[in-house]
Specification:
flat, mainly alpha, about 0% strand
């Protein structure tokens, strides 16, 4: 069971994807700053997606 994926990881993967892609694109390693940058990028992306979705609904 070394390559098993938990349900939590499977559910979090698409939500964390924009931040992971951005960190990988700039070549950021597994540092403590990666989590901070990933959180910033994810917040920006998902806030923009939410605003656009609400604008389209209204």
């Amino acid at each position: 069971m070394q390559n098993s994926t938990t349900i939590g990881n499977a559910l979090a993967w698409p939500i964390l994807l924009p931040g992971n892609l951005a960190c990988n694109a700039v070549g950021m390693g597994e540092t403590e700053y990666r989590d901070l940058i990933r959180m910033l990028i994810n917040s920006l992306v998902w806030t923009a997606v939410g605003v656009v979705a609400i604008a389209l609904i209204m």
